[in-house]
Each structure stands twice: as C-alpha cells, then as structure tokens.
Amino acid sequence: MGLRIVVAADAAGVDYKEAIKADLEADPRVDSVIDVGIAPGEATPYPHQGVAGARAIAEGRADRGIFVCGTGMGMAISANKVPGIRACTAHDSFSVERLIMSNNAQVLCLGERVIGQELARRLAREFLGYTFDPGSHSQANVELIEKYESELGADGASVPASC
C-alpha cells in the first residue's frame, strides 16, 4: 500500500506546492494526494492550510504532508498546533532524513523564498523514502514528546513532573 500525502500552501508557496503535487501524483510510492489548498491566485492565510493539512494526518486521512509557505516556518508552527503532529522546516537532505529517522515527523515544511524549486522537489522525494524505526534509540525521544503533548493539554499550562 502506498502513501497518502496531503499538500498545503499559502500564496507565497503555491507554485512549489503545485510542482511537488505533480511529482507526487507521478510517484509510484504514492497512492493519493490530498490538496487542502490553496489554488494559484488565491490568498488565504497559511495557518488555515497548515491546520487543515495537519488535521488530515491526525484524522487518519493522510500518512504524511508537505506544506509550503514563504519560509516553511509558519506552516510548521501552524501544523504543530494539531495534537499528534510533528512538523518541521527543512532545507537540506540531512535535515529531511532526520525529520523521519530521529523524530518520526509526519510533515515536511518548505520555504519557497528560501530554496530553489528543484531542491524543494528533491527534498520532497527524499522525504517519502525514509521510514522511522520504532526500535531505534530515537523512539524514546518520540515517546517523551508524545507524553509532554498528552500531559500538557491544549493550554500547555503545566509541565509533567514525570518527564
């Protein structure tokens, strides 16, 4: 069974999103691509798309996401507001590898104003090729992140003493 990928962008990232979406649709590792917007010519603030894409993953409709804005940072911040989501900006191959291998992240965020389109497309392809090993030493860190998230709750008001 192939991957289900959700893509998202704002006006500053829509061109790269469209190119990456076309690549994903032609990739044999991908069964489906969910596009939560925006379309070229639209202007919707990135938090809407970041949260919509992250919700698709959290709800089980997608396995991973690739979100694009001007820097990638706004999309990452927005996506990380959805419980259970680990999203991060990456602009080099090593960071993309570590997103999965060290952090079991589901969302790669890219910045259209930061890197060239061919590099963004390559990083998106690389992102699909990694699989987290739950037997690795990184599993303990992922579990701690998940524990903080569940114990802190939505308001983040208290840090659990057990962590």
From TrEMBL:
Transmembrane segments: none annotated. Gene3D superfamilies: Sugar-phosphate isomerase, RpiB/LacA/LacB. It comes from the Bacteria. SUPFAM superfamilies: Ribose/Galactose isomerase RpiB/AlsB. The keyword NAD does not apply. It is an enzyme of class 5 (isomerase). NCBIfam families: PRK05571.1, RPI_actino, rpiB_lacA_lacB. This is Ribose-5-phosphate isomerase. It comes from Schaalia naturae.
